Predict the structure of DUF2520 domain-containing protein.
Amino acid sequence: MIKVSIIGSGNVAQQLITTFQNLEKSGSEIELVQVFSRKKESLTHLLHSEQIISDLDDLQEVDLYLIAISDDAIESLSGELPFKNRLVAHTSGSMPLTIVNDNNRKGVFYPLQTFTKGIAVDFKQIPICLEAENPTDYQVLNRVAKIISDKVYAINSDQRKALHVAAVFVNNFTNHLFAIGNEICTENQIPFEILKPLMEETVQKAQTLSPEEAQTGPAIRNDQKTIAAHEAFLTNKNQLKLYKILTQSIQENGKKL
Amino acid sequence: MIKVSIIGSGNVAQQLITTFQNLEKSGSEIELVQVFSRKKESLTHLLHSEQIISDLDDLQEVDLYLIAISDDAIESLSGELPFKNRLVAHTSGSMPLTIVNDNNRKGVFYPLQTFTKGIAVDFKQIPICLEAENPTDYQVLNRVAKIISDKVYAINSDQRKALHVAAVFVNNFTNHLFAIGNEICTENQIPFEILKPLMEETVQKAQTLSPEEAQTGPAIRNDQKTIAAHEAFLTNKNQLKLYKILTQSIQENGKKL
């Protein structure tokens, strides 16, 4: 058995708790021992009260502590842990391995996905990015990760920083373009769902081909007539600004990307 | 039976030909009569030679002519048709109903999807946007559309123009952000496939919630520290410019969208 405890009660913590619990029921080799949260009540819908602790001194010895709390709090919390030389991994995409306090052995266990509170995810399909200070610790992280996911990657701190920025482009910014699309639909009494198959195919095509090969539309084929018509159509200043800048970026970089 | 002929040999024309042929085999009420192409050889892999014509005068009388050619050519080609008062529909997202020559009854039959040459699509999942001058013609378009797709919408020319612009945002521009993500991954020896589940979830979440509710990331939570770290990381000028503008747009409009 691999004994794991989780520190945190937010979105990622709760998704991990649920996943570990389901795995325990089906007899996996992971045992979720304790979960630390300053506010016990935020976890009582998921765990027996005796599994939830709100004092770090109550943490039992386990093989892996997973810190799933906000980025800013990782450094100080890892410094408060009342033990030494145990494996402590954070789950953040934007923090380096070294943010974990020197008292313990450092690791990163970063699930690359956007989580929605209350909506369960299938962890099997979520890439987990791992980093550790030494091969033995890496193997512990790797064993846990492979039990919960089919997609496990060794990603160092520099790569993870890059990955996090790339994720902002393909998730946060893409979602914002979806919001603009929704706004245009709403303004014209068009159901946004009509765009869903196109949105899904955009993802599939970018992965089957590459985004560079998959690029279509007036910008890449330099169709000035359509571009002018679209710009004339867009009376919303922000929509027009984004249209112009993204069109320009595709024209200047779309082919050489 | 509904008799249909197609004018054109490009991507959309070929997808429609294949779909109609498969439906004929399974005994649907659509009969694909002829396909017009100036270059017969571009269709010989799909059709018997006698079904392909390269002279408009050879067009037989059918219930519906579908013009699937480039936007710029629709007006002049529809003016060359050697008959009157028949139902002629184009398949373009960016052209109005009125672009079809007055000699015939005008219609629009616009499948909203990004097609890739040689990759067959499941038309059942592709929204088809219809418009006609009168209810009788609309019914003909509607019967054909419902045979090939589960998603049929009445969309007038103004709405279709808006939809086409929205599609540029959720497809062309989104794909460009994927290209930037791929570029960042490549520069840091990260496989782009690692981002695929996130890209897929971004689409699902924007449709399950709404894109406005689904917005996450440093911009919407005004996390200046992470934004500054990302901006310091981005040495590529174009990447940095897009990062700043999209971050600003989310901050200014993300919540009220």
